[in-house]
Amino acid sequence: MISLSDIRAARERIAGAVRRTPMLRPGPTTTPLAPGADVVLKLECLQVTGSFKARGALNKLRSLRPEEIARGIVTASGGNHGIAVAYAGRAAGTPVTVFVPTGVAPAKAAKIKGYGADLRIEGSIWDEANRAATALAATGVTYFHPFADDHVMAGQGTVALEMLEDAPDIDTMLVAIGGGGLIAGMAIAAKALKPGVRIIGVEPTGAPTLHAALAAGRVVQLERITTKVPTLAAGKTEQINFDVVRRHVERVVLIEDADMSRACEWLWRELGVAADPSGAAAVAALLVGAYKPAPGEKVCALVCGAGADGTT
Prior knowledge:
Largest sheet: 6 strands, mixed
Number of helices: 12
Order of helices and strands: HEEHHEHEHEHEHEHEHHEHHE
Distance between the termini: 40 Å
CATH class of the largest domain: Alpha Beta
Number of strands: 10
Strand order of the largest sheet: 1-2-10-7-8-9
Number of domains: 2
Radius of gyration: 18 Å
CATH architecture of the largest domain: 3-Layer(aba) Sandwich
């Protein structure tokens, strides 16, 4: 399991290559987000490449030996991780292959190709795209796992360092979950710095990956995935992520795809923030009451990805 020192080392490693994204208190608004609570948003949608994924991808890249980079990079993604890996690969001057499922947002696919990566469509869900990626990795290409990788998780954990520096009185962090890399890295950092902070995960009902694993007490393979949000559609987490979530995350709440669309619209209408559905998931949990803060509770909701696909 990674430690706070690993996450601090990641911050030093990626310094200058990523942005310190702002915190925003959303008020006043015509439609209250969580009446009675003190809510602040961490706008990681303003990160380079448009999501937190740049942190993990760049930390992974900068942790590699030159010969590993020279072999080229392969990954599988629902969209945002693929964009970040393509960006990192272009910066390193090495070829990148990104496998994505059929449901990838066209704008995200275009960004992957725009950074010079070889985009390949494989399967209808991330797990199927990932099988193709690992098959290519078996030929010697360097593989970047989107969530079950120490360097990727450490990079994502730097989000929590910034949150607690900018708002040390946070009581609760709301974090979207795809495979579990973001929430695992953030939970390790946050709990090390502030043991009493609550970490709440947010997943779609159509891909309750960690919710199902926690209920079963073990990693499970979902029988089916029905969410239309490919960035939150991992059919199975990995043991490394599950162990951290079981230890540090208070609970995982579920929302509908329509709730994420509603939150995307709220963010754009009320704040002028363009978030993709996964990026709006934590806001959706507040907006529809999947997570109900206590009066005066200070909640930080992570807006983790940018895009216009949530309001179209």
